[in-house]
C-alpha cells in the first residue's frame, strides 16, 4: 500500500477491469495482464482521439489565420493601387530645349511605349483619335453583353498623368506625315478649329491597321467589323434587333431562319471567340427569353483556309472543331466569300477533290474578322520612300524598328511589315523595347541612328551597338465556348498544349493580369460576376 494512494486503490476497484472480473468470473491477474498487453500494442485510444482533435483544430486555426492575412494583404494592395491611381505626383513641365518626340496612336504598341519611356528626356506629344487604350483581346465578349465596353477602356490621360514630366495629348486624327518638312498634320472632329500641324525631331508611328475587305463587293456596306468599341456595340444592337424582328407577328419560317442566322467570317482567334460568345449568348440567355425561337438560332463560321486557328497545335484545332460541333456551331472551311448583299452571302466552296461549288447563304448579321489593311496615312507615308514601294502590309522596319529610308522615325504594331504576326503581344513587346531604346538614346553621351538614310547600320549608344528587338513568344490563348478555352504555352523549350475548363480559368486569370490598370481588372471581374448572377444584357441599346 506504500506505492498506491487511497485514491489510486479506489480507481482500481471501480475500474472496468474489476467490473469485467465480476461479470465474467475470471481471475483479476488474467484481466490485468490482458489489458496491459492491449495498451502496449495498441495504445490508449482516448488520448489519441484528443490529440487528433487538437491537431485538427490547430490546423484549421492556422488556415483561418493564413486566409485572414491574405485577405487583409490583398485588400491593402487594392487600396494602395486605387490611391496611387487617383493621386499622381505633381509633374514637371517640358523643357523647350529638348527634342520633340511625337507618338501617333494609343494602341498596344504606342501605349506600351508611353508607359516605358522617361518623359523627362523629351518633349513628348501624343496624337490619336482615340483618347483611351482598348484591351482588344476581350472585345468579342462585348458583342454579347458579357462585358461592358467601358470595362476594357483605360483613358490615356490616366497613363500620361503618372509620367515624371507632362505629356501633351491631342484628341485628333493624324492625316498626313510630311517627312521632308518633319511635320505631322492632324485635325479634330471635336472642335471647330481648322487642321493643325506639329513639327517633330523624332517620330513613332503606331496607328494600327484598318479592316481588310479584299475588294469583295458589299463587305464594307453590309458587314460588321470588330476593332473598336463602337463595332461591338453595333453588333449587339443588330443581333437583338434581328431577334425582335424574328419574334414579330406574321414572320414566315424562312425569314425567321434568315434573321436568326449569324455568320462570322474569319477563322482566327477573333472569329473563333466571337462565334463562341454568340452561341453562349443564345444558349444561356436568349433561349430562356424567347424559347419559341430557340431551335432557329444559328451561328456559322466561314474560313477560306483548310483549317481554323493555324497558329495553334493540331491537337487544339481538333478540340476547337469538336467543341463547335457539340455546341452546334457550323464551321465552313475552304469557303471564300465572293460578294455580300443585305440578306445573302455568295460563296465558293472548294471540295477535297478540287471541285468548286457556288452557294448562297442567307444571313441576319454578318461579322467580318478577315484581316488587316494599311491605313491611308501609312500608305501615303510609304510613298515618300522608294524602298517602301514593294511593301503590302505596312511600313518596312529593320531589327531596331526604324522605318527604312527615314532617319529618326520608328514604327511598331499592325502598321508595320515584319516577320511577326500582327498581334497585341508583338506590339506590346515592341513598345517596351522602343521605350527603353529611346531612353538609352537620350542618356548616351553620343549616339547615331545608323546611316543618315536610316536604312543601314547599327544604331550606336555611346561606343556600344544597340541591341536589336528580340520577340519572345509567350503563348497563344483563345476562348472556344461553353466555358472552355485553349492555350499553347512555350515552357522550358517545349510547347504545352492545353484545353478545357481548367484552361478557361487560366484564360480568364491571364487576361485579368494583362489588363492595363487595376481599374480595368476590377471592372472586368465585376462584369463576370454580374453576368453570373443576372445574365447578359439583352436590351437593344
Write structural notes for this entry.
This protein is α/β, with parallel strands linked by helices and 541 residues long. The chain contains 16 helices and 28 strands. The chain has a 5-stranded parallel β-sheet, with no helix packed on it. The protein is globular. The termini are far apart. The N terminus is likely disordered.
Q: Span between N and C termini? A: 96 Å
Structural class: alpha/beta
Rounded average pLDDT:
87
Number of helices: 16
Helical content class: 25-40%
Integer-rounded radius of gyration? 33 Å
Poorly predicted runs of 5 or more residues: 1-25, 39-44, 450-456
User: Strand order across the biggest sheet?
Assistant: 5-2-1-9-21
| Global geometry | globular
Instruction: Name the beta content range.
Output: 15-25%
The tally of beta strands, per DSSP, is 28
For the biggest sheet, the summary is:
5 strands, parallel
Summary?
Helix content is 40%, strand content 22%. The chain contains 16 helices and 28 strands. A five-stranded parallel beta sheet has the order 5-2-1-9-21, with no helix packed on it. A five-stranded parallel beta sheet has the order 11-18-12-13-14.
List the helices and strands and how they pair.
Elements: H1 6-13, H2 16-24, H3 28-42, H4 45-86, E1 100-104, H5 108-116, E2 123-128, E3 132-134, H6 139-143, E4 153-155, H7 156-160, E5 168-171, E6 173-178, E7 183-187, E8 196-199, E9 202-205, E10 210-211, H8 219-222, E11 224-225, H9 229-246, H10 253-259, E12 261-265, H11 269-289, E13 298-302, H12 314-326, E14 329-332, E15 335-340, E16 344-350, E17 356-362, E18 365-368, E19 372-373, H13 376-382, E20 395-396, E21 409-411, E22 416-417, H14 424-443, E23 447-448, E24 460-461, E25 464-465, E26 476-481, E27 484-491, E28 494-500, H15 501-514, H16 518-534
Parallel strand pairs: 1-2, 1-9, 2-5, 9-21, 11-18, 12-13, 12-18, 13-14, 20-22
Antiparallel strand pairs: 3-4, 6-7, 7-8, 10-19, 15-16, 16-17, 23-24, 24-25, 26-27, 27-28
Amino acid at each position: 500500500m506504500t506505492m498506491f494512494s487511497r485514491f489510486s486503490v479506489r480507481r482500481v476497484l471501480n475500474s472496468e477491469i474489476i467490473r469485467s472480473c465480476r461479470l465474467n468470473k475470471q481471475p483479476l491477474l488474467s484481466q490485468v495482464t490482458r489489458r496491459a498487453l492491449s495498451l502496449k500494442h495498441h495504445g490508449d485510444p482516448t488520448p489519441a482521439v484528443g490529440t487528433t482533435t487538437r491537431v485538427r483544430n490547430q490546423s484549421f486555426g492556422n488556415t483561418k489565420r493564413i486566409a485572414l492575412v491574405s485577405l487583409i494583404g490583398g485588400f491593402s494592395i487594392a487600396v494602395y493601387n486605387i490611391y496611387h491611381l487617383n493621386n499622381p505626383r505633381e509633374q514637371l513641365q517640358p523643357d523647350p530645349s529638348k527634342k520633340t518626340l511625337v507618338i501617333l496612336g494609343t494602341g498596344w504598341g504606342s501605349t506600351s511605349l508611353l508607359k516605358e519611356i522617361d518623359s523627362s528626356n523629351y518633349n513628348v506629344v501624343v496624337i490619336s483619335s482615340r483618347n483611351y487604350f482598348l484591351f482588344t483581346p476581350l472585345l468579342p465578349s462585348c458583342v454579347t453583353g458579357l462585358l461592358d465596353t467601358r470595362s476594357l477602356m483605360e483613358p490615356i490621360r490616366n497613363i500620361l498623368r503618372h509620367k515624371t514630366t507632362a505629356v501633351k495629348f491631342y484628341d485628333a486624327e493624324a492625316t498626313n506625315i510630311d517627312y521632308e518638312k518633319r511635320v505631322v498634320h492632324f485635325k479634330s472632329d471635336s472642335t471647330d478649329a481648322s487642321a493643325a500641324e506639329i513639327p517633330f525631331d523624332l517620330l513613332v508611328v503606331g496607328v494600327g491597321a484598318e479592316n481588310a475587305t479584299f475588294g469583295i463587293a458589299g463587305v464594307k456596306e453590309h458587314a460588321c467589323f470588330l476593332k473598336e468599341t463602337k463595332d461591338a456595340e453595333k453588333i449587339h444592337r443588330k443581333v437583338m434587333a434581328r431577334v425582335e424582328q424574328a419574334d414579330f407577328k406574321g414572320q414566315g419560317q424562312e425569314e425567321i431562319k434568315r434573321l436568326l442566322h449569324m455568320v462570322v467570317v474569319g477563322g482566327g482567334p477573333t472569329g473563333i471567340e466571337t462565334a463562341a460568345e454568340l452561341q453562349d449568348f443564345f444558349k444561356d440567355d436568349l433561349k430562356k427569353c424567347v424559347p419559341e425561337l430557340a431551335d432557329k438560332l444559328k451561328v456559322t463560321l466561314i474560313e477560306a483556309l483548310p483549317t481554323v486557328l493555324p497558329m495553334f497545335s493540331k491537337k487544339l484545332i481538333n478540340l476547337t472543331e469538336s467543341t463547335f460541333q457539340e455546341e452546334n456551331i457550323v464551321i465552313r472551311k475552304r469557303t471564300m466569300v465572293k460578294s455580300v448583299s443585305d440578306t445573302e452571302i455568295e460563296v465558293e466552296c472548294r471540295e477535297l477533290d478540287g471541285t468548286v461549288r457556288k452557294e448562297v447563304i442567307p444571313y441576319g448579321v454578318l461579322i467580318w474578322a478577315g484581316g488587316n489593311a494599311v491605313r491611308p496615312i501609312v500608305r501615303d507615308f510609304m510613298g515618300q520612300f522608294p524602298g517602301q514601294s514593294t511593301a503590302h502590309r505596312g511600313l518596312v522596319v529593320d531589327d531596331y524598328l526604324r522605318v527604312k529610308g527615314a532617319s529618326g522615325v520608328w514604327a511598331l504594331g499592325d502598321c508595320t511589315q515584319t516577320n511577326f504576326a500582327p498581334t497585341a503581344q508583338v506590339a506590346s513587346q515592341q513598345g517596351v523595347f522602343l521605350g527603353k531604346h529611346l531612353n538609352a538614346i537620350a542618356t548616351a553621351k553620343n549616339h547615331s541612328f545608323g546611316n543618315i538614310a536610316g536604312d543601314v547600320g547599327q544604331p550606336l549608344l555611346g561606343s556600344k551597338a544597340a541591341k536589336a528587338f528580340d520577340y519572345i513568344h509567350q503563348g497563344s490563348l483563345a476562348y472556344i465556348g461553353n466555358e472552355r478555352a485553349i492555350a499553347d504555352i512555350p515552357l522550358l523549350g517545349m510547347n504545352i498544349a492545353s484545353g478545357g475548363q481548367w484552361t478557361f480559368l487560366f484564360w480568364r486569370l491571364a487576361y485579368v493580369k494583362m489588363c492595363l490598370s487595376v481599374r480595368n481588372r476590377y471592372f472586368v471581374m465585376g462584369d463576370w460576376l454580374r453576368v453570373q448572377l443576372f445574365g447578359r444584357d439583352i436590351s437593344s441599346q
